[in-house]
Amino acid sequence: MDLGDVTATATQAEPREGLRTALALRRLAERLEALHVRAARDQGLSWADIAAELQVTRQTVHKKHGRAERPRRGDSDALL
Fold this sequence. Notes:
Layout lengths: L2 H8 L4 H28 L4 H8 L3 H8 L15
Helix pairs in contact: 3-4
């Protein structure tokens, strides 16, 4: 399915198909964001830098993606 197919499906009169398309796009966007946040952190970008790019607060991006980071040595949460 290419972008034209997605656009056509999303604008169809059938609401159920449109809702399924919206869900698929939301899931794809979440995976894409997580992938790039992880890559940005691996390359040394700060939470503030990432937040600026995503146009959210540092706290928002850290809350959403911070737990996905590898635990650091001595981190008490690493055992959870």
